[in-house]
From TrEMBL, chain A:
Assigned protein family: Belongs to the rad9 family.
InterPro entries on file: DNA_clamp_sf, Rad9, Rad9/Ddc1
Catalytic activity field: Exonucleolytic cleavage in the 3'- to 5'-direction to yield nucleoside 5'-phosphates
Keywords for this protein: DNA damage, Exonuclease, Hydrolase, Nuclease, Nucleus, Phosphoprotein
Coiled-coil boundaries: none
Segments for region (Disordered): 265-288, 300-389
Organism lineage string: Eukaryota, Metazoa, Chordata, Craniata, Vertebrata
GO molecular function, one term: double-stranded DNA 3'-5' DNA exonuclease activity
Superkingdom of source: Eukaryota
Protein name: Cell cycle checkpoint control protein
Compartments, as annotated in UniProt: Nucleus
CDD domains, per database record: PCNA
UniProt function note: Component of the 9-1-1 cell-cycle checkpoint response complex that plays a major role in DNA repair. The 9-1-1 complex is recruited to DNA lesion upon damage by the RAD17-replication factor C (RFC) clamp loader complex. Acts then as a sliding clamp platform on DNA for several proteins involved in long-patch base excision repair (LP-BER).
UniProtKB/TrEMBL annotation, chain B:
Function of the protein: Component of the 9-1-1 cell-cycle checkpoint response complex that plays a major role in DNA repair. The 9-1-1 complex is recruited to DNA lesion upon damage by the RAD17-replication factor C (RFC) clamp loader complex. Acts then as a sliding clamp platform on DNA for several proteins involved in long-patch base excision repair (LP-BER).
GO terms classed as biological process: double-strand break repair via homologous recombination; meiotic DNA integrity checkpoint signaling; mitotic DNA replication checkpoint signaling; mitotic intra-S DNA damage checkpoint signaling; nucleotide-excision repair; response to radiation; telomere maintenance
Keyword Cytoplasm in record: yes
Coarse class of the protein's main subcellular location: cytoplasm
Organism: Xiphophorus maculatus
GO cellular component: checkpoint clamp complex; cytosol; nucleolus; site of double-strand break
Protein name (record): Checkpoint protein
Known partners and oligomeric status: Component of the toroidal 9-1-1 (RAD9-RAD1-HUS1) complex, composed of RAD9A, RAD1 and HUS1. The 9-1-1 complex associates with LIG1, POLB, FEN1, RAD17, HDAC1, RPA1 and RPA2. The 9-1-1 complex associates with the RAD17-RFC complex. HUS1 interacts with POLB, HDAC1, FEN1, PCNA and RAD9B. HUS1 does not interact with RAD17. Interacts with DNAJC7.
UniProt keywords, alphabetically: Cytoplasm, DNA damage, Nucleus
Location of the protein in the cell: Cytoplasm, Cytosol; Nucleus
Family label: Belongs to the HUS1 family.
Length: 389, 271
């Protein structure tokens, strides 16, 4: 296998690796006929990302025919090859990726200015092919926007925020922070941003869905999209089925598939309370009707300040596990069993549907390295990942 | 009870953000008192927050281009809210480029201070971001706690040295001791001292100047060094005058004055 990347494309490759590092700990490398595929999946398998670099992306792309090589490696070690992206652009003229079969090493050679040569020999493990099965073209809602629009959107949310909720109507998209339970809601700041359809390059809504997904991985994709200036497309269906975010170019394609919270209708409804009834923030902003901001409470009388709080609905409604309508799409028995193992006493408040992997979950070889029993289908697993290192 | 303020001037927005950020570094929660002319950020010097007190006073006209409020009753034109300045400061920081920012008291899932910003965009509709920060409306019977603390009869009052210098001194002393002695006389001498079994360190400041009076007697107070550090760390206001008043063995009263903003901070002596 011989891949040679030159000029600005080295940075593009580096950015792709960095943005994949937001997903999982391991980088799956697979040289295919139609290009070099770099993939990653998170440990709870609720997020998957794939970049496919077409042969034309490379100044030289040669893979041996007949050899079905694929491997996985620690993403951190690949990241260190492209450590400083700023200097990479200035100093690196050429990046050569080759396979040393004798030593079982994947070799990254950076040809820098002044004849400087940096060689990274990275060890790898054999792996099965990692491929999520998704069909973005069948999604009801499709959007495309310049990366700047989305970057300017997520900047309003704190970095500690795990999930955002995206709601669409025929002409608008609302992005809000997702707050899990009622108790937190009375303390947490709620942020809502409204984007008009004309901020998008393409805006097609067939169904007014509201989906909730992880922000961290989304930021990862934006990192890549912003540096390459590629517009980001977003495809989604009803809550619970994955959202696909993608960037495309003539020589590369990146797809991020993120699980969304399955539709627990009670939760969805209570999540916004009164807000949902008046989804017209821009108009609200324009019309300065003071009465709208009236707080109807007599402070001299009542000691309890937040009398505006609605009585909390019974916990059961939103603690209800989404099991009944849990249309899991995975073929893997293990995954389903895993879900069943959740403590019935206190099911997690949020639950992401695991994505569907065709040929990934597999053969026992991989089971050894990725014990499914420890997997929790929760949003953020970054802590676990770092600990594992 | 209504409140709405609008900031359209970017310099005012920036200035207001810095004040709120300064407050957020000093305390997790505080009281926001709104009157027709002023905004006050108040931390009553209670035992629960280590006896530290704060009083920050802003003239609304210097920050808001539009400002409307109605108090709890037509006679009492005041509103008292318990707010968390940190999310508020965070919300303001992300809307620095806004065309206009509105602060308003709203009733959402609970009483909220809403920061609504109209962001620059090419779209015809306009891009609006709203941040709802939950607040508690404080009942009137508790209001007497939020009156301006009577300024005690100080033994010594001097101007503070440059806060950055003071900060770097205190930051280093923090590594050695949890308590710090502040002493000053009316000659304009001020000493910051720490004393432990192993080491004694004193930093002397001279010729600081003082508003009046004369003797050379030092008035000193031992304070929790973290409280002082917190005060120095959060500074974003760049005061034109910084004053230190000491009641011997009792309290340090630090005052920052900057045009339209005054911030007073009380650190009690440790026993």
């Amino acid at each position: 296998m011989q891949c040679v990347v030159t000029g600005g494309n080295v940075k593009v490759l580096g950015k792709a690796v960095h943005s994949l590092s937001r997903i999982g700990d391991e980088l799956y490398v697979e040289p295919q006929e139609d290009g070099l595929a770099l993939r990653s999946v998170n440990s709870s398998r609720s997020a998957y990302a794939c970049f496919l670099f077409a042969p034309l992306f490379f100044s030289r792309y040669a893979i041996p025919t007949g050899l079905n090589f694929r491997c996985k490696m620690a993403i951190k070690s690949v990241q260190s090859v492209f450590k400083s992206l700023a200097t990479l652009e200035k100093t690196v003229e050429k990046c050569h990726i080759g396979l040393d079969e004798q030593k079982d090493r994947l070799t990254f050679t950076l040809h820098c200015k002044h004849g400087l040569l940096k060689t990274h020999n990275l060890s790898y493990q054999d792996s099965e092919s990692l491929e999520a099965v998704f069909d973005k073209n069948s999604c009801a809602n499709v959007f495309r926007a310049q990366p700047r629009v989305l970057v300017d959107t997520v900047v309003h949310f704190p970095t500690s925020l795990e999930e955002v909720t995206v709601t669409v109507s025929d002409e608008r998209m609302w992005v809000r922070n997702h707050v899990e339970d009622e108790a937190e809601r009375s303390k947490a700041m709620l942020t809502e941003l409204c984007l008009a359809a004309d901020e998008f390059d393409y805006f097609a809504v067939k169904a007014h869905y509201s989906i909730t997904f992880c922000l961290k991985e989304f930021r990862g994709l934006l990192l890549f999209a912003e540096s390459t200036g590629l517009p980001v497309s977003m495809y989604f269906d009803e809550p619970g089925s994955p959202v696909v975010l993608s960037v495309t170019d003539s020589v590369l394609e990146g797809n991020f598939v993120l699980a969304t919270l399955s539709d627990n209708h009670d939760l969805q409804k209570s999540n916004r309370g009164g807000d949902a009834d008046q989804p017209h923030p821009p108009d609200d902003f324009m019309s300065d009707d003071m009465d709208a901001y009236l707080i109807a409470m007599d402070t001299s009388a009542a000691p309890g300040p937040s009398t505006a709080d609605p009585p909390p609905p019974s916990l059961a409604t939103f603690r209800k596990p989404p099991a009944p309508n849990y249309r899991t799409r995975t073929h893997s028995e293990e995954e389903e069993e895993d879900d069943g193992e959740e403590d019935p006493e206190r099911p997690p408040d949020k639950k992401f549907r695991s994505l569907f992997f065709g040929s990934v979950l597999p053969p026992s070889s991989q089971m050894n390295t990725q014990p499914l029993t420890t997997q929790e289908v929760l949003a953020s697993d970054s802590e676990d990942e770092t600990e594992a290192d | 009870m209504k409140f709405r303020g609008k900031i359209t001037d970017i310099a005012c927005l920036n200035h207001f953000t810095r004040v709120v950020t300064t407050i957020s570094k000093l305390t997790k929660t505080c009281v926001l008192r709104l009157t027709p002319d002023h905004l006050f950020f108040i931390l009553p010097g209670k035992v629960t927050n280590g006896g530290v007190g704060m009083w920050c006073q802003l003239l609304q006209a210097n920050f808001f281009q539009e400002y409307q409020m109605e108090g709890v009753t037509s006679e009492v034109q005041e509103i008292c809210l318990e707010v968390s300045p940190e999310p508020w400061s965070r919300a303001l920081k992300t809307v620095q480029s806004a065309k206009s920012v509105k602060l308003k008291l709203t009733r959402k899932h609970c009483a909220c201070l809403t920061v609504a910003a109209e962001l620059p965009t090419l779209s015809s509709v306009g891009r609006v971001v709203t941040h709802d920060v939950p607040v508690d409306v404080i009942p009137r019977r508790l209001w007497q706690e939020f009156q301006e603390a009577g300024v005690p009869d100080f033994d010594v009052s001097v101007y503070l040295p440059p806060l950055k210098t003071m900060k770097s001194v205190v930051d280093r002393m923090k590594n050695l001791s949890n308590f710090l002695v502040m002493e000053a006389n009316l000659n304009g001498d001020m000493n910051l001292k720490i004393q432990t079994d192993l080491v004694s360190v004193t930093t002397h400041f001279k010729d600081l100047g003082n508003p009046s009076r004369d003797p050379e007697v030092m008035a000193e107070v031992t304070v929790d060094i973290r409280k002082l550090q917190q005060f120095l760390m959060g500074q974003q206001v760049n005061p034109s005058k910084a004053l230190c008043n000491i009641v011997h063995q009792n309290v340090v009263h630090l005052v920052l004055l900057h045009e339209d903003v005054s911030l007073q901070y009380f650190i009690p002596a440790v026993a």
